[in-house]
């Protein structure tokens, strides 16, 4: 008991500076304890997200949830640490102004971390969606659609984060939104055509009327293979190796024939005229036999021949055949034409020249 009284008497003899030092040591110890508790909670959260939760996500049919979990675990744990730092700093006897500044700084950091978590989740979702698009429509589709979506979502998340921070510091968000709206309107009026092409390009990427590599025919009669689908223009490589660049807004508002859809098979047609003296049924049989003798012609659907019309000097017959790929129509047509001439000569079927009969009458 005497020792305790001696200790207390010595404690009260301490100078004011010593009391202040002990006070700060005690407050710092409390802040350190608070921070240590939240640090332990962050480690517990990391263990939970890396060891226990994956046991439940393993039962799902996709690894999307596993990838999202791996991406959000580090920033989620960081949020807990920042929360501990916030309460630790708040427990310290700082002046009011210092508390406001530290709280504001930590709030900004928290908003950045939360925005980063949202961006990571969105990035994984877009990657998963892009891989599914590539599986359905072939490679290259994800590289056309996903990057613009990522940019739009990034701008959106950054705008939301900025408005939340401004609202926290009691700034007038309405005036900022109004200014942005007026600026966007001015930009939209100045770049109306460019924006129309960009929106049309995004529509083409989502609607998918054609894909890169497809052969399309425009309403003007021009046709070629799609080389690239951009945000502003679409590039088409024609058969004479020239590049046709078309604004996307024009493609969205015109009729397009996609020769590669629903599949790459193509139908060829050969028109031929035979003499009125020839046997039509025999000519049709020869056309079908000739087409079947060419390896590039498909057996299913089988080639067909039809007597289509009476011409001025010939009976018009058409041969229809299918090839496995639209790019081989011309070469296959050339082979069939060569054999048709040879077979018709062997069978005595003539392809007449145009004939006109002029009757001259004498004047009375």
TrEMBL record:
Its main location: membrane. One of its GO terms (cellular component) is plasma membrane. Residues 194-259 form the Mechanosensitive ion channel MscS domain. It is found in: Cell membrane. One of its GO terms (molecular function) is mechanosensitive monoatomic ion channel activity. Residues 270-351 form the Mechanosensitive ion channel MscS C-terminal domain. Keywords: Cell membrane, Membrane, Transmembrane, Transmembrane helix. Residues 151-192 form the Mechanosensitive ion channel transmembrane helices 2/3 domain. It is a multi-pass membrane protein. The chain crosses the membrane at residues 28-48, 68-88, 100-119, 149-167, 173-191. InterPro entries: LSM_dom_sf, MS_channel_1st, MS_channel_C, MscS_beta-dom_sf, MscS_channel_2nd, MscS_channel_C_sf, MscS_channel_TM-2. It comes from the Bacteria. Belongs to the MscS (TC 1.A.23) family. PANTHER family: INNER MEMBRANE PROTEIN, YNAI-RELATED MECHANOSENSITIVE ION CHANNEL. This is Small-conductance mechanosensitive ion channel. It comes from Geobacter sulfurreducens (strain ATCC 51573 / DSM 12127 / PCA). The gene is mscS-1.
């Amino acid at each position: 008991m005497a020792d305790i009284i001696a200790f207390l008497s010595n404690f009260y003899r301490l100078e004011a500076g010593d009391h202040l030092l002990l006070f700060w040591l005690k407050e710092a110890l409390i802040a350190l304890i608070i921070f240590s508790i939240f640090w332990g909670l962050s480690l517990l959260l990391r263990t939970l997200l890396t060891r226990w939760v994956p046991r439940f996500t393993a039962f799902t049919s996709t690894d999307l949830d596993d990838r999202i979990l791996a991406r959000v675990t580090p920033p989620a744990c960081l949020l807990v640490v920042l929360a501990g730092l916030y309460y630790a700093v708040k427990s310290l006897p700082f002046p009011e102004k210092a508390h406001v500044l530290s709280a504001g700084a930590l709030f900004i950091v928290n908003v950045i971390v939360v925005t980063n978590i949202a961006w990571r989740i969105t990035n994984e979702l877009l990657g998963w969606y892009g891989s599914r698009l590539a599986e359905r429509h072939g490679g290259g589709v994800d590289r056309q659609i996903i990057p613009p979506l990522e940019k739009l979502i990034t701008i959106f998340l950054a705008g939301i984060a900025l408005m939340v921070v401004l609202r926290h510091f009691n700034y007038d968000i309405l005036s900022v939104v109004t200014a942005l709206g007026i600026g966007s309107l001015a930009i939209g009026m100045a770049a109306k055509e460019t924006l129309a092409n960009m929106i049309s390009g995004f529509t083409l990427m989502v609607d998918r009327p054609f894909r890169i590599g497809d052969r399309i025919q425009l309403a003007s009669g021009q046709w070629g293979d799609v080389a690239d689908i951009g945000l502003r223009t679409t590039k088409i490589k024609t058969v004479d190796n020239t590049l046709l660049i078309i604004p996307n807004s024009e493609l969205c508002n015109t009729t397009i024939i996609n020769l590669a859809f629903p599949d790459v098979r193509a139908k060829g047609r050969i028109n031929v005229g035979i003499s009125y003296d020839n046997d039509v049924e025999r000519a049709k049989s020869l056309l079908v036999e000739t087409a079947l003798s060419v390896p590039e012609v498909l057996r299913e659907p089988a080639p067909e021949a039809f007597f289509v019309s009476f011409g001025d000097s010939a009976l018009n017959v058409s041969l229809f055949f299918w090839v496995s790929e639209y790019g081989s129509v011309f070469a296959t047509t050339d082979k069939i034409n060569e054999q048709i001439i040879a077979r018709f000569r062997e069978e005595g079927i003539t392809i007449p020249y145009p004939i006109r009969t002029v009757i001259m009458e004498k004047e009375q």
